[in-house]
Amino acid sequence: AQIRYTIPEELTRGAFVGNIAKDLGTDVAKLAAANLQVLSDSDSQYFSVNVNTGIIMVSERIDREQLCGQNPRCFLHLKLAIENPVEFYRIEVEILDINDNPPEFPSAEVSLRIYELASLGARFPIQPAQDSDVGTNTLQTYHLSANDNFNLNVKARTDGGKFPELVLERALDRELRAVHHLVLTAEDGGSPPRSSKMHITIQVLDANDNHPVFDKPSYGARLVENSPVGTLVVKLNATDVDEGPNGDIRYSLSSHNSAALRQMFAIDEQTGEIRVQGKLDFEEATVYEIEVEAKDMGSPTMEEHCSVVVEIVDVNDNAPEVILTSFSSSLSEDALPGTVVAVIHVRDKDSGEQGKVQCHVSPDLPFQLRKDFEHQYSLLTRTYLDRERIAFYNVTISASDMGSPPLSQQTILPIVLVDVNDNVPQFEQASYEVLVAENNAVGSVLITISAVDPDSEQNSRLSYSILQVGGTDPGLDPTRYLSIHPTSGRVSAKLPFDYEQTTYFQFHVEVSDGGSPALRNRTLVHVFIADQNDNAPQVHFPKVGEDSAAQFRISPFTYPPALITKVVAMDADSGRNAWLSYHLVEATEPGLFSVALRSGEIRIMRALQENDASAHELLVVVRDSGEPPLSTAVTLVVLVEEKGPEALQGSEAQAADSGGLPAITLYLIVSLVLISTVSLVGLAALVVRYL
Question: Where is the Cadherin domain (predicted)?
Fold first, then answer.
């Protein structure tokens, strides 16, 4: 939407410009709630809006001549921006000229030297008056005071200026009157009109009575801007019918030309060639009117004037400019498509098609440009964003004009995505297994549970905790045995484990991030307790007290390999640590008795003789296979008596031969064979792999 107002310059501060609420057809309260903002294209804030009334007012002094110079029309542009939703309204304020500047001559007095033989109709340019106003308020006419010899001619220039000339209407006679005093009045068209005066003193000279004459009253030329220094503009030609020095002509730029024009062009005084000596820029000036004078070398000299109009042709020498009106370098990753990121103003100093600008961004980016109106674009999000995939964008905005060849300008907008907590922490493994030896040290680290969260900062700060698995024995509360460091995930033992009490348990580890609300995840940890050789073998048969021995009776007619008795022991450990061996370490008669290594059976190895002792003491040691091995000793006393049985003497020996004992021994042997087999298979697999 675009609204236009018209006001005169030099209004007082607070002066009424327009009612934006009324002109937009909206309620004032809605404008105030929509955070109405005024954005000006210029450096100064000439206007302000009262959000409570919707009235636009003048906030700074507006001088049309300072803003727009001699341009016939003067505009100030501003934009109104409102939020929810974001809308822009372009306001164009035309500044009307008031007659606040009178015409002014460069000087209040001027002197002219004119030969008495000057031809009738000769023209004598006078420095024109300048009026900063425009339109009817600018300089409109000149008036010359009454006199007998001169008339006033006003020459209209192509740029609208009026160039006064004195025209000789009646021949001069120095002897009759040597000095003439005239008054030239410049008057504008304001109401009421304003004016200024110049006093002209004309001194009538004698002698050289022919002035130079140009072959054309005016010359024209066209040059492209940026023409190199030394480029020929035009070659002038003037002639003087006088002879000698009075007919020798010298060319020069008239003093009426501005200092800026004199820096732009130079003329050869001998040849009359005008050449470029400065940088021509179409954007600074589109046309130059050069006033040239030709003087002869008579005494006094005579001169003639002509004008050269130089039209500058525009070339595409200005790249477009990209100006950020509004920009936020950070953007939440959950921003919806269509969110406004930046408001961009573009401009090109060239004219016509060369000054038209098009903008675009790469289609590979999740952003797009929307053209709001001429010279303004909005940068919007095109799709949903994901900071974990791409956290930073360099959005390159390319602006190119319609020239041939086109010129372009690129502006890079760095955009950082702000994280939101949209990712659940993930464990490195679906579940964990831990093998820990019993009798572990309190405080030892069993395992480190690790999870990752692709979010950032607080949203990625993880904390760990231990939870009991649902449906498990409440007596196996994992927090009783274990603790977990809340940030590192290190699981430590609070108590030593006992394989003989617990061989396996499981628990959950829960991880939660620091977002709001926090996101959580769980993993299952299996803990296997490994046995250690921490239990010595226990002798279950024969039952003996401390520092006592078990007695057995045999007949003197017992022959080998009769079974005397059997030592039965058990080990609370498992595996190899419970694999027992029996050893006869001391005997009264070495070689008379033997103990089976694995079964613990004690047998007589030879027939008894008369000289053998009647009582034999045997020390049997039961040893497990752990590292280091643990052992238990038992002392047996074998009595040789006539009335004793030949074998399995005593009720204790008979109990030792009961049916349950061989099964235990068989179980231990089978376990040892299986362990050895698995070890051999694993060793063979390693050998095959490395071969």
Answer: 6-105, 106-214, 215-322, 323-427, 428-539, 536-664
| CATH number of the structural domain 213-313 | 2.60.40.60
Q: What is the mean pLDDT of residues 50-72?
A: 82
DSSP-derived 3-state class of residue 575: helix
What is the domain partition of the chain in residue ranges? Answer: 3-96, 109-205, 213-313, 324-418, 426-530, 538-640
Q: Can you tell me the distance from the alpha carbon of 202 to that of 337, in angstroms, rounded to the nearest whole number?
A: 79
CA distance 53 to 398: 41
What whole-number distance in Å separates Cα of residue 46 and Cα of residue 94?
Answer: 13
In CATH, what number does 426-530 get?
2.60.40.60
Count of Cβ atoms closer than 10 Å to residue 568 Cβ: 23
Residue 566 CB burial class (10 angstroms; 0-12, 13-18, ≥19): buried
Report for 71-80, 365-374, 653-662: range of highest mean pLDDT: 365-374
pLDDT at 647 over 50: no
Which candidate, 552, 489, 497, places its Cα nearest to that of 521? Answer: 489
Overall size of the chain counted in residues = 691
pTM (two decimals):
0.47
C-alpha 375/C-alpha 401 separation (Å) is 12
CA 440 to chain centre: 52
- pLDDT value at 603 more than 70: yes
Query: Can you give 68-106 as a three-state secondary structure string?
Result: HCCCCCCEEEEEEEECCCCEEEEEEEEEECCCCCCCECC
Give CATH superfamily name and number for 324-418.
Cadherins (2.60.40.60)
Query: What is the topology classification, in CATH, of domain 3-96?
Result: Immunoglobulin-like (2.60.40)
Burial of 221 (0-12, 13-18, 19+ CB in 10 A): middle
Please state which CATH number belongs to domain 109-205.
2.60.40.60
What is the residue-wise DSSP string for 345-396?
Answer: EEE-SS-GGGG-EEEE--TTSSEEEEEEETTEEEEEE-S---TTT--EEEEE
What CATH number was assigned to the domain covering residues 538-640? 2.60.40.60
Tokens 């919707």, residue? 54
Residues forming a β-bridge with 205: 115
Query: What are the pLDDT digits (tens) for 100-117?
Result: 888 889 999 999 999 878
Position 643 scores a pLDDT of 66
Cβ atoms of 521 and 451 closer than 8 Å: yes
426-530: same fold as 213-313? yes
Looking up tokens 């008669």 gives 589
Q: Is the pLDDT of residue 654 over 60?
A: no
Q: Is the pLDDT of residue 671 over 90?
A: no
Strands across the sheet containing 123-125: 123-125, 162-168, 150-156
Q: Calculate ∠ Cα 109-110-112, nearest 5°.
A: 150
